Amino acid sequence: MKGYIIHLPKSQKSLDSALSIKLELESIGIEPHLFNGCDRYDVWQEFIDNEFTIQDITRFGGGYVDSEIATFISHYKLWKKCVDDNESIIIFEHDANIDLTFDINLLNTFDDDLLNLGKPNWGTRIWEGVGIKRREICNEYHNIHIFGEGCQCNRTWLFGAHAYLLTVNGANKLLKSVGEDGILPADLFLRQEVLNIYDLLPHPFSQKEEFSLIQRNAIYKNQKVNEWEY
User: pTM, whole model, 2 decimals?
Assistant: First the structure.
């Protein structure tokens, strides 16, 4: 199966990290391709050209807004590619990291909307089980933005979009939602009210903690932010 690694080609830091994961993916049988992402310098022209609207501006701002929107656009382009090529793909961000070995054949058997491969880097820490597991949905009426350890509400979103498998059916649902509802930060946009989300447990990928080109403040110990070198 093909995997696409979103990176910023003008950034040596981003390119080096993407090339590192490319070698790791080759070693486990995934066919990796580097994919040029949108950066904060191109973001607003891309935003206008695609006639995007913003669904909820209050959901932006955890990082730099222009970088958050650029990240969304990078994922959006791969959703379109998934539909255009009419095949399932795996989408990685340049800071994905392989933690665990897993049966690569499991990916070929998945035929629903989205299979998350990346350990959530915020929100709940309750992720139990082995194999492919569909996320539960909470129907309680309360503020879903307040995270509770025992509540399924904090599994509504992807909570980190660094590694996931997307099918053509799932991609079509995402593109439809973009047109009808507007955009959100990428990992919030990937949510259960739009498509069916499953997890491969235990999650084989995590997010590297060394640097961030989105965050305004470090979310990991010793993480470097504002590391734009161009």
Answer: 0.89
